[in-house]
Amino acid sequence: MRMIDLNVDLGEGGAHDAELIALASSANIACGGHAGDESTMRAAVSACLEHGVAIGAHPGYEDRENFGRVPMNLSAEEVADLVSRQVERLATITEIHHVKPHGALYNQADRDPVLAAAVVRGVVRVLPGCVLYAPPAGALASAAKTAGLTLHAEGFADRRYQTDGSLVPRNEAGAVIEKVPEAVAQALEIALRQRVKTRKNPWIPLPARTICVHGDGLEALRLLGEIRRSLEAAGFTIRA
């Protein structure tokens, strides 16, 4: 039996968190950095427990004005501190299955071994046996392996890729896949064939165990529902 995890970023002020959680198998909950507070964390945790969804911490740059999606120039220790601080906020509420960095922190750390090690160090301070959601072959995956964390390699249904396996920056046209059928097709390619078509059209390998849908997308609820139905029709069990 084939299995795939569907993860969704939430606790970020969206209107459909409860409905998204009901369709996902794991959730990445904002921990008060780029978004969220104790109230939103508790609401998301409650919905996850109701639906049997794996709970993850989603730490990001503490830059609410830019939703944590603008690169920052912080020291490695500052990055480790913000990650551990945010993960600890959620850990005081519930048991955590995984951690997934958010936005610019995710992308910068995956290119920079020093930042990747700092992110992982911040995770390990709070959750030494945790799962890390990250790209399959970047600096975050390497840092997780070095620290003895379990990696769940991630692919994105609603983001376009570059030929080096990185995501197209959000400030570039077409970085986000807005058409639901196109995003569903990308999710199926990732799940079925472990590959993704890049913006310049060549296929690259993407051996993902988990597929993400961004909860703040305009079509996020419809998209997640369509992806789940399509994957189940293709014979997949949706499970974290």
Descriptive notes:
The protein has one domain: Glycoside hydrolase/deacetylase (TIM Barrel). Helices cover 40% and strands 19% of the residues. The chain has helices at residues 17-23, 38-51, 76-91, 103-111, 113-126, 139-147, 180-193, 220-233; strands at 2-10, 26-30, 54-58, 98-99, 131-134, 150-156, 195-197, 203-205, 210-214, 236-238. Strands 1-2-3-4-5-6-9 form a 7-stranded parallel β-barrel, surrounded by 6 helices. Helix 1 (17-23) packs parallel to helix 2 (38-51), helix 4 crosses helix 5 (113-126) and helix 7 runs parallel beside helix 8 (220-233).
Strand and helix layout:
Blueprint: E1 2-10, H1 17-23, E2 26-30, H2 38-51, E3 54-58, H3 76-91, E4 98-99, H4 103-111, H5 113-126, E5 131-134, H6 139-147, E6 150-156, H7 180-193, E7 195-197, E8 203-205, E9 210-214, H8 220-233, E10 236-238
Parallel strand pairs: 1-2, 1-9, 1-10, 2-3, 3-4, 4-5, 5-6, 6-9
Antiparallel strand pairs: 7-8
Jot down its keywords.
240 residues; alpha/beta; TIM Barrel; seven-stranded parallel barrel; two-stranded antiparallel sheet; 8 helices; 10 strands; 40% helix
What percentage of amino acids are in beta strands?
15-25%
Beta strand count: 10
The coarse silhouette is globular
Architecture, CATH level 2?
Alpha-Beta Barrel
Summarize the amount of helix as a percent range.
40-55%
| Largest sheet: spatial strand order | 1-2-3-4-5-6-9
CATH homolog superfamily: Glycoside hydrolase/deacetylase
Average pLDDT for all residues: 97
